[in-house]
């Protein structure tokens, strides 16, 4: 609803096409290059006039080959570890774990690059009027510049429909396109020419005792219009063409985590042959149409200022001192762009770096870190209307539920399946890295929560039936391994940890029993499995067991500093500023902590987050945006967005456990780049504008003061409701609700945001009858705080019910 100023926009842009990252100079390094991707193929586009570089990735180019990293010795020390933990001998337990629990095989394989395609343009060193952008409404990168009075243009995209990367080269005068194209690779590789193609073939690296077995092939074809074209000495040459199109096809021998019998040459050739026969305008139109089927579902308008006329890196640098609301909207949509570009059905899930990595030895191997990061990658999927893109994660879960059976049996002597805090293309499930971080048997549990969440948003009973065995067998594992701790007789996981944090002052001690996050995860897994079984009318005895076991789990507790305890024992330190905030999982992404149902826990959780502070790594700040949104504090959530949109120099390469910020190309800076920070902030902005986890759809629950006027279209709430919101002067003007599934729609509206109540609404009465809403959890015991809590003041709100029919739309004016 915000009026858009009459401004001069860069190039031919206009207010409804302003979703561009744009710059007035080429990228000097990888963190300034622009990412394109089609879920499978990724490229970073540098945009240098004289020497274009496309750094190339394909999602299955990983070191090693099929393996599982578990050994028979891995679990030998577990009984002794449990004994030491229950005796309170925490340092001794850590010392034993460090000696006995280090994996005897590998700590996972590495996601690796394919190589680079270079395009050299003679005489373009002194280009003028330079401009480059990434249009995230079209998923196309564009570079324009002038040389000797001629305007040159490049368009680059990773085609969703043709499965190749396409580079289109044009000029505003005929006969002006002259260039050479060649490749290189950091991998073991060779090049040849074959059937009018430049072919680079390679095999991935050995790592930690595993022989590299992924065979990959990149094939490049140049199609010129006019002029002369030749292919010799592994170089494509084009002279005086009117236009040219470069096609890059990449494929591997990977079929699945246990089958690498594919033919990289034939797959790459098939993609290239089909794509290069299609006329460029048709190929571009098909690509954009496919992409926009996803992207156009959600629109966010917070208003536009004249900051839009500045290059994106300058806007990021000035954001904290500006009123550049549009940059926050751009950052939100950039997260959706990255998810569409790195997670397509039938493909692999995005790694720590999505599908973009230029290093043979990537930070943290660019694996799947599943004690927060992989989960965070998918936080925006359902709420920002990209539900189908969740599928790669679900397929990986199905794989892990197979490979994790060996780890459950060998390491723990248990049924069901388990995985720890990392996995990779080969679906390893044993501990990774040293026990300090790696001895955490909850990774599969956390990933499994996404299955039930997908059902709550979609109501897809067929999906629930397909994936119920994953939930059931995950629950089987924990039913087998839970231990009764001696003091309170609570059932707990031991050994485990609260991811990557320590609890003995001055000591690197993480190994624990009954960590709060573990208990919260078990509560959710058991509840969701029981609810799924009830919907599917399966396993009545198991449902009873799961619900009875929930009552015996260690409860959330409030400690001596008025904090929500991170561990079973009251060991939190107010000066602990650790980046992980694992015990607040119960607030977000879970719904076990509520201002309405559990106000004491809600206050304690807020105290914990205040102790932890705001400074953090990029992904941690993304999590904190969501947490402050759940605390209904929009101004604090916005403060974290401001901290995240802090420019970090593109050349910074070092690994840091603090800092955060954003690179010039809008990638999250951990540093280094981790894509989960982008996804976390996108989810957090959605959470500021709508929440549906607590028995109702809360409209504008955490609206910051400086977003007083705006519109959001297409967010999705649990229960299958698509929501459009218009607001002005911090008051709701109009709601549009599309009901996909029908049933009761319960709305929660802050009293200070209402002008009037629509005649279609009536005050809510009793429990919400809609089965897809999250229902209040079973009440659990609570240990009182030793220090007195200061109650959190929550804005008064009212709830209203709207009876809906599937497929109908309802417009409510206020």
UniProtKB/TrEMBL annotation:
Q: Which residues form the Glycosyl hydrolase family 95 N-terminal domain?
A: 21-257
Q: Which keywords belong to this entry? A: Hydrolase
Record InterPro entries: 6-hairpin_glycosidase_sf (IPR008928), 6hp_glycosidase-like_sf (IPR012341), AFCA-like_C (IPR049053), Alpha-L-fucosidase (IPR016518), GH95_cat (IPR054363), GH95_N_dom (IPR027414), Glyco_hydro_b (IPR013780)
Q: So where does this one cross the membrane?
A: none
Query: Can you give the residue ranges of the Alpha fucosidase A-like C-terminal domain?
Result: 691-754
The residue ranges of the Glycosyl hydrolase family 95 catalytic domain are 280-689
What GO annotations for molecular function exist for this entry? hydrolase activity
Q: Name one Pfam family in it.
A: Glyco_hyd_65N_2
Q: Which PANTHER family match?
A: ALPHA-L-FUCOSIDASE 2
* Record protein name field: Glycoside hydrolase N-terminal domain-containing protein
Origin species:
Paradesertivirga mongoliensis
